[in-house]
Amino acid sequence: MGLKILAIDTSTLVLGVAVVEEGKVLGEVTNNLYKTHSERLMPTVAGLLKDLSIKLQEITAISVTSGPGSYTGIRIGVTTAKTLAWTHDIPLYAESSLTVLAMNGKRFPGLVVPLLDARRNRVYTGVYRSNASGVNEVLGQQVLEITDLLEQCNRWKEPILFLGDDVSKFRSVIEETLGEEAHFGSPAENLPRASELGEMSLQRIMRGEEPLSQQFTLNYLQVTEAEANWLKKQKQGTGNDVN
Amino acid sequence: MSHKNSLVLGIETSCDETSVAVVKNGTKVLSNVISSQMDVHRRFGGVVPEVASRRHVERITVIIEQALAEANVTKDRLDAIAVTQGPGLVGALLIGVASAKALAYALNLPLVPVHHIAGHIYANHLVTPLEFPLIALVVSGGHTELIYMESHLHFVRLGQTRDDAAGEAFDKVARFMGLPYPGGPQIDRLSAQGKVIYDLPRAWLEPESLDFSFSGLKSSVMQLMQKAERKGETIGQADLSASFQAAVLDVLVEKAFRAVKQKGVKQLLLAGGVSANSGLRVRLMKRAEEEGITLRIPPLELCTDNAAMIAAAGTYLYYEGKFADLTLNANPGLSLIE
Ligand SMILES: [Zn+2]
């Protein structure tokens, strides 16, 4: 029997669940219905495993996206994945939601830029280039003003593929800045795929990477507003010194 | 159906405490692990919901594991998973609910959603079994309610706050006085050293009403302080605390016993975080003795948010077959009364 990976992604509005094994996607559910992940995730996992006649105990590893994206979404996915993994001592792996999305552009001969709206004209993003087994980061994941991102993109002078449903919000400014170098994903390519997520963790296992501890840190890419304000006050020396 | 040796695991994440407990037969606490985030939130002067949610995710399975280990119970011996469904902070509740659903699915166990206030009331059941009919005075940072119970799980609300919860008024006044977070215990501590010398209003509302209102009292305290500041007078923190606390307690105690009389019950329960207030405990004990009423107050560790109380209430819901399916969602505005 081969390795079986259960993949869970709720970092964005898309809910994705898949079971993959080496060289094969056994099953996958993707929906983009904006329904609450809290209500839908667990029944979707249960339903897919039932359809595939696979018991949770037969799963070799669980893979989850740990952000960036919707804070609530990330937490529902990670909490569910962590608890399922903990209950049956299943190794747990996490991947970036941006890298999972970038995988949809792995055949693109240029740069791939997955992008999630971070509000106030900012985006969660990273820049990737395809390689033999997937994609690798050219520019690390960060929160950027869309104009700053496009300024960087302009310097590369090569075709760039933008991926994600949120890209449509910025399409006109992207086209204005990059002209013919700008390319856009098809509707299917704009949805992160849980099967790609599972595949990425499968590769990790084959490389012999250790699973995560139950207390691994989520990738919010931003501190909370309260923490940011507190840090600012500390720097200005006006923070109240309670301990 | 006999329920010998039922083992229920409870999960509570409605605010800033990550708590998991194992309770036997709805009455015996085998473990009650409470991971408080107080130190994390103190520097912000109050609970920051986003910070609380982030913390819950990091701790949840570690706390589950600890609760089972302390109870010396293995996962396969559990009979049901109980979880706080609401009310509370939605982002915080969601962590408990997601984790409980995953556990219930993975272990093939019934999933039992519990109302947070039902939990607070059942905290008393972990000390001495509830005797019906009874009145429960529920006072916390989010609630001030008088509940009538004729039997297990049947809640009738007789009164509630029309504005601030009692605990909320304590915290707001404390913050205004410049006391460190959390303010309630600070006011209670200072009250013991002060005298009731400031004349503050008591909101009795309509005759016979069992509702509460604390926002007028809160404003009066603030006006008193601002007036003194303008005149260059100093107001002693201890005396102000004592005067404020007396104003809150007068109303809480009077209305609780008014409810006891209206319903002709013999048992009064105190529940919720403000149950830890020593002034309130003393006043209620004295009055209960005068009136010949049995008063039940949970020990301090069961007053604040904890999962043992959720598991206790959850056990009775489990006995009645009140299960949820895997679509269960957190409900920050969940009502206790059906
Ligand atoms: Zn509470």
From TrEMBL, chain A:
Q: Which Pfam families does the entry mention?
A: TsaD
Matching CDD domains: ASKHA_NBD_TsaB
Residues crossing the lipid bilayer are: none
Q: State any GO BP term from the record.
A: tRNA threonylcarbamoyladenosine modification
- InterPro entries given for it? ATPase_NBD, Gcp-like_dom, T6A_TsaB
User: What highest taxon heads this organism's lineage?
Assistant: Bacteria
Recorded GO cellular component terms are: cytosol
Report the residue ranges that make up the Gcp-like domain in this protein: 34-230
According to UniProt, the name of this protein is tRNA threonylcarbamoyladenosine biosynthesis protein TsaB
Source organism (scientific name): Baia soyae
Automatic annotation (TrEMBL), chain B:
Cell compartments where the protein resides: Cytoplasm
Q: What is its EC number?
A: 2.3.1.234
Q: Which UniProt keywords apply?
A: Acyltransferase, Cytoplasm, Iron, Metal-binding, Transferase, tRNA processing
SUPFAM superfamilies, per this entry?
Answer: Actin-like ATPase domain
- GO cellular component assignments: cytoplasm
Looking at the keywords, is Disulfide bond present?
Answer: no
**InterPro entries named among the record's database cross-references:** ATPase_NBD, Gcp-like_dom, KAE1/TsaD, Peptidase_M22_CS, TsaD
What does the entry's cofactor note say about binding and number?
Binds 1 Fe(2+) ion per subunit.
A matching Pfam family = TsaD
List the catalytic activities from the record. L-threonylcarbamoyladenylate + adenosine(37) in tRNA = N(6)-L-threonylcarbamoyladenosine(37) in tRNA + AMP + H(+)
Question: Where does this protein hold substrate?
Answer: 138-142, 171, 184, 188, 277
Positions binding Fe cation in this chain are 116, 120, 305
PROSITE patterns documented for this protein:
GLYCOPROTEASE (PS01016)
Q: Which cofactor does it need?
A: Fe(2+)
Start and end residues of each Gcp-like domain = 28-311
Swiss-Prot/TrEMBL GO biological process terms: tRNA threonylcarbamoyladenosine modification
Q: Tell me, what is one Gene Ontology molecular-function annotation carried by this entry?
A: tRNA N(6)-L-threonylcarbamoyladenine synthase activity
* Role, per record: Required for the formation of a threonylcarbamoyl group on adenosine at position 37 (t(6)A37) in tRNAs that read codons beginning with adenine. Is involved in the transfer of the threonylcarbamoyl moiety of threonylcarbamoyl-AMP (TC-AMP) to the N6 group of A37, together with TsaE and TsaB. TsaD likely plays a direct catalytic role in this reaction.
HAMAP family recorded for this chain?
Answer: TsaD
Q: Which family does it belong to?
A: Belongs to the KAE1 / TsaD family.
PANTHER family named among the record's database cross-references: TRNA N6-ADENOSINE THREONYLCARBAMOYLTRANSFERASE, TRNA N6-ADENOSINE THREONYLCARBAMOYLTRANSFERASE, MITOCHONDRIAL
Protein known as: tRNA N6-adenosine threonylcarbamoyltransferase
